[in-house]
Please model this.
Amino acid sequence: MTIKQFTSFKNSTRYLVILFAVMLLITSRSLSFIPNFTPTISLIVFISIMFRNNYILAFIIVLSQLISDYFLGYYSSMLFVYLGYVLIALTSKYIMKNLSFIHIIGASCISVLIFYLVSNYGVWHMMGLYEYSLNGLIQCYIAGIPFLKYSLISTLLYSTTIYVLYKVTLSKYSNIESLLHK
Model:
């Protein structure tokens, strides 16, 4: 299925896909016992190619995060986490002009870096754990390296898994495209 084919879905199908995307993103944040080892970034990378409208994409991400944070707890740097996720979605749309393995890996790696830079800046800026200087910001980024490692491993693992499942499903059910467009 190409990006153009997805965007040709009927409105009712699109609304179901939006609801499913929100539910997946809500669930993805509570799937891990290892910090930052979640499918959230991978899901955002894939969801980003499904929606042309950037406002709908941002709405899906922010809504899902607000709902999941309602259950997990709000925190001072959450605005930066949400901003990181929206930037990931917008960046992924431009990297993933077509759905190929190399684009998935590239978007996944860049997305993890975006999340690391934006979310750790938020921790430094909002939480008062580090002095407000360049040295404090560097210390914050250094302290975030273990989380970056887990985020990179999980995003590559989940993105590869989602991509392989998509390809296997598409090859097994070659007429799925015609079913989706009815």
